[in-house]
Design goal:
Strand content: 15-25%
Helix content: 25-40%
Shape: globular
Number of strands: 5
Length: about 130
Amino acid sequence: MNAPSHHDFLASQPVFKLRHLAELLGWRGLQLRHVTLDDGKLIVWYETTDEKFHLQINPHPLGQTTHYRATVIATRYGLSLDAVGFYDLTLGENDDDLRQCAHCLQPTLSRSNFKSKEWRKRFDSQ
């Protein structure tokens, strides 16, 4: 049996579910991104569109569609690329699971948090 093509794998990605999760955290415009390496390996990730302030979600481990790691890149606010760190998440089966996941991520990855200079200071020493 042949392995699924890159096209089939991309088509199987839970884009709408992850986009809904991002929206629950206050982020709009989450997009699926991908690159094919020289060896043919396909790397996928998700991110919102602002290069200096965005949510990024990566499958972890690569190649599956349930477990992810998410972070916020906030160089616009003077935070280093790795200041926020990555947070594990698992996509559940239904909307309640998704809301619970967003609730757990809210304290760190909610877009509205970054409006507060005092809140952002917690990352200065990390």
